[in-house]
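Wed. Picked up where I left off yesterday with Membrane protein. The coffee machine is broken again, so keeping this brief.
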Amino acid sequence: MPKGIEIRDAHFPGRAPIDAYGNGGFRFADMSHRGSLLCLPSGVHGWDLTEGEALTAESLARVLDEAGAIEVLLVGTGKEIRPLPQAVKAVLKARGIASDPMSTGAAVRTYNVMLAESRAVAAALIAV
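Structure written out below (tokens, as returned):
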């Protein structure tokens, strides 16, 4: 039996508003996380994407896995608004998900409002 520290993917099994963002991470549910996040119906997951990295359908695989429970995906693209690649928009649309790119700060605020309204929302938030 192996001993030592077990490294697991960061995951909070619930929906939680984002309390704060900045300094390369986020605070939610009395916890903090360094790096980017996917806020999905299945919970809040660590996301291995950094500002400036290309957004691909593969990087959103976890979002696509939960497509039936998501109507809107807010994409926090970092400090600046960056358009989503056409291929990514097409894959999301084919799964019935509307996508809305915006700065990460705007995406956090919009996500919190839509979550409070019990909307079928998810967020892909690149850390700033």
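Quick read: The first strand starts at residue 11 and ends at 12.
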